[in-house]
Write a structure and sequence with these properties.
about 170 residues; globular
Amino acid sequence: MKKMVTTFLVATTLLTSVSFAQDDKSKRPSPPATASATTSDGNTITIDYSQPSIKGRTIGADIAPFGKVWRTGANETTVFEITKDAKIDGKYPLKAGKYGLYSIPGEKNWTMIFNKTWKQWGTQYNEADDALRVVLETKKAPQTTEKMTFHVNKNGTVNLLWGDKAVDFTVK
């Protein structure tokens, strides 16, 4: 009986440890990250995403293929949220709320897609749910960034940096 209780306790401990390890998203190969800022007009811009690494791969070929819809991150859908209605790049209106952030990477341009469906696994995408698409110029980044990184600045500028690529847009 004592042996059975000990075996049960060891098995329970192992299963509990595995369960907690799976819930710890920071241990994923593409860990979660958040970029957020509040602009001078009181609009809070937040991006919740997972950071894929290049790991020797080529952006546009091996990862985030050029010309195809990409989830703009890893794991769950990248979530873009604004607390007030705003214009993206000064001309494209977007209502306050949460959006799934997808993109179509390109060598010269990236199309950023703000999709109405935001709470799902990142590879699930339905074009019919697009709220807005904005074509942005792809620039050469000032330095190489291994893990995809977003920065949100208080002036409303959003920067996406990854590898030698930089894509920027404004939220005002």
